[in-house]
Amino acid sequence: MKKILFFLSICLLLVACTDKRQEQIAKVLFLLNRTGAYNEMQNTNGRQYYLNVDSLLDGIDTTYIKTCKGPRAFPVVQSLLDSLCTTKELCELTNRSYSVGVRLAATDALIRRKYAHLEEILLSNYTDTTKIYVRSDDVIEEEYAGSVFLRNVQSCRDKTVISKEDSLRNDSLALYTPGLSKYQYTKKLLLRLPPKESYYSRVKEIVLKERTYQALKALARFRREGDKAILMSALSRYANEEEDVESEDDETNNALLAVTVWPCQEFIPMLMHIRDYEIKKHDSSMPPRSKYLFEAVMAYDNQWAYNFIDATLALSSKKKGREYDSYITMATSFHSAMLSHYNPRFASLLRKYPGEDFGDGYE
């Protein structure tokens, strides 16, 4: 009789624990749905989290939160799914019927567990164009959910969690699926894309039809004479007031990046026009425009380029002393360009025109 009672008590305890765990999972899902943002985490070297869920959740009053309108800021609760859920439960939470925040948090946990079927999860989520705020350290940016899924799963390619074949296919999906050139992941892919013949027509289509200008650099790598007009047109839009010169999507900024891989004589007059425009502006030249201008000129790697940069910095220095006082200067942008692409030909100009101290690391 005692054994039966003991067995029953154990069963009741297990049921109670299971009920509590399900309540905690429901609470975490509720909080994830109310944060309005996703916290990007480094997963490739991570391990499964085992956290004190009780102490973290008990202090959060969901009754009050339910009365509040709009997203709310909470302690990071994404990792709690890893502590609470089985692998099977996490897989279920990646289903498209759940919110983006929940699906991304569940995928994070599966990545840490080195789940063998991450590719299947990606294939069911990579076309999701729902937008979500992504927080990385102190930076918050709005991104497409599918782009975040691609970036997170592709981060596993060097850890053999996904195969090389799957990784290559994922990049092809990002590149060739219509409309996905607007993904942050695809834009970065375009900036490093090699000039493989099979890519050419798609890259040109992305530039001309989808107007994703990160593809200009990929197009320039093919060095086709007929494409010079496309780059000249993009460079000529430097005074377009509708463009945000601080944006990575700016057409002229990306055309300047294209010149860094294809420094042609035909582009030089336009580079001079851009320099003159930036110098004459009433406000200071804002990065990344001026930084990309210096990087483009440095790519010519000749005496003309040295003289161009010397003259530009001299003109900028005179204007700075005469018209405005700002920590953002042409010299600062030149130092930043040299930090990214050090070239000893221009090293003396670093000393001649001091800029913001970025610390050591030019070489």
- End-to-end distance: 80 Å
Q: Helical residue percent?
A: 55-70%
Major sheet: size, sense and barrel closure? 3 strands, mixed
N to C succession of SSEs: HEHHHHHHEEHHHHHHHHHHHH
The chain-level mean pLDDT equals: 84
Please give the radius of gyration in angstroms: 26 Å
Secondary structure class reads: mainly alpha
User: How many strand units?
Assistant: 3
Q: How are the strands ordered across the major sheet?
A: 1-2-3
Low-confidence stretches: 3-9, 11-17, 357-363
Tell me the number of helical segments per DSSP (H or I, 4 or more residues long): 19
Strand content: under 5%
Shape: elongated
User: So what's the oligomer here?
Assistant: single chain
3D structure, described in words:
This protein has helices spanning 2-35, 53-57, 62-66, 78-84, 87-93, 100-112, 118-123, 145-154, 164-176, 184-191, 200-208, 215-220, 228-235, 251-259, 268-280, 289-298, 303-323, 330-340, 347-352; strands at residues 37-39, 131-136, 139-144. By secondary structure, it is mainly alpha-helical. Strands 1-2-3 form a three-stranded mixed beta sheet. The longest helix has 34 residues, at 2-35. The radius of gyration is 26 Å and the shape is elongated. Mean pLDDT is 84; it is low at 3-9, 11-17 and 357-363.
